[in-house]
Amino acid sequence: MSSAPLLGSRAPDGNGGVTTGPAAAAADGQERRPPRGGTGCSSWLGRVVDTEEAWAQLQFAVPMILTNMAYYGIPLVSVMFSGHLGGVQLAGATLGNSWATVTGYALVTGMSGGLETLCGQAYGARLYRMLGMYLQSSLILSAAVSALVAVLWAFTESLLLLLRQDPEVSRSAAAFVGPQVPGLFAFAFLQCLLRYLQTQSVVAPLVVCSAAPFALHVGLTHLMVNVLGLGLAGASAAISATFWISCLMLLAYVMRSEAFAETWKGFSAEALSYVLPTAKLAAPSAVMVCLEIWAFELLVLVAGLLPNSTVSTSLIAMCSSTEAIAFMTTYGFSAAVSTRVSNEVGAGNVDTAKNAVTTTLKLSVLLGVSFVLLLAFGHDLWASLFSGSAVIVSEFAAITPLMIISIVLDSAQGVLSGVSRGCGWQHLAALTNLVAYYLVAMPLAILFAFKLKFYTKGLWMGLICGLACQACSLVVITARTKWSTKIAEAMQEEKAHYVA
């Protein structure tokens, strides 16, 4: 069976240019695989890693990293502007942003994860029209989930008070969360569009449609907070406006570009029949993402119960933020391997998919080592960006060796999670996360921190144990599962019944 052209594949368009994606596949109808050998492989680097595959993945990963950082920065900018309104407003915006992430944004991000499997494998198998059907079904699911979250957000203040948060801060947090309800829908749709484009290896427009709105967001937030004096509500409303601008930009690009003529045929009622298959992968994807994010947030809450809770909470929050920033880079490679694996498995090129996994794991180790070196030599400077307290800077230096271990493990598991999404193993990854974080990491973190009195170090030691369990489990799943027969053959069976 011939494979579809994937990352970096191109074919002549007959007009002196090149064609990519479905058009390229139709143009040649021949098997295409990433080139091997050449001068790159004769060098020492070529013997360590498949340089052609690595270069293709780098070209994919870097735009995804930039896109993710831009979207991460949009609410962060609003929190920063809120901080200039006063201490209570800063605390409220920080708490509100955390609440919105945990209860809403993380959930809808996870819900779109099913598209990495469905669209990726359909694209690899050349079931191009299916991408549009899966996209629409995912949009329907995302809208439904966003509506439920919007109801939950209406009770933000009451729920935060129930969690024993400060009343005034809870009120400010609710004021920050409320105006983001329209933005939640936009962000949910954005994630679906992003996955749809990602699985076709279309990543450059994602940078444009995230970086440009981010730049606009800075000016818009300044206008609403400092010029119009709308306070927390203005900072929050700016997030919603920016997400909708980005969403409409991407939607317009998809609907107007001829590159998606075969994968986007317009809105159709037929998409309703694909809602259930999409939900079967979207639900475990959401659980998989949320369990991990909730674990880090839970660590911050537990840190508040330690002696000298002000320092402990600040320190664990700094560690969590550092881990999150490091993971943004890993996310780019996670998205790359997810796309490579799903495309190649859908095309029946299982050996090529396995090679992509091996290459990405090597890149992730290289990436982890680079970040570790930066942290090892610049931890004092990095800590000083968060706090001017000499005590906190000193404590962060003491916990840095543990941070280094966790970042390396997190890089490995992040890539392997991408493999899980590409292969459709979200249910296994979700179960792994449940065991790793809540049956291993949390109990050990509490034991080390309170019983053995390692305090903040103990919390992070427990997390490391969970990350190690998670990474090892995903390695075993990836190595031992016979995905060549279970997944590739299932996709070929679906292809046999496919009607264009």
UniProtKB/TrEMBL annotation:
According to Swiss-Prot or TrEMBL, what is its membrane topology? Answer: Multi-pass membrane protein
Q: Cite a single Pfam family from the UniProt record.
A: MatE
Q: What is its main location?
A: membrane
Which protein is depicted?
A: Protein DETOXIFICATION
Q: Where is this region: Disordered?
A: 1-43
Keyword Iron-sulfur listed? The answer is: no
Q: Where in the cell is it found?
A: Membrane
What's a GO biological-process term for it? xenobiotic detoxification by transmembrane export across the plasma membrane
Key words, A-Z: Membrane, Transmembrane, Transmembrane helix
Q: Does the keyword Membrane apply?
A: yes
**Record family assignment:** Belongs to the multi antimicrobial extrusion (MATE) (TC 2.A.66.1) family.
Transmembrane regions: 133-155, 175-194, 201-220, 232-255, 359-379, 385-409, 430-452, 458-477
GO terms under cellular component: membrane
One of the entry's Gene Ontology molecular-function terms is: antiporter activity
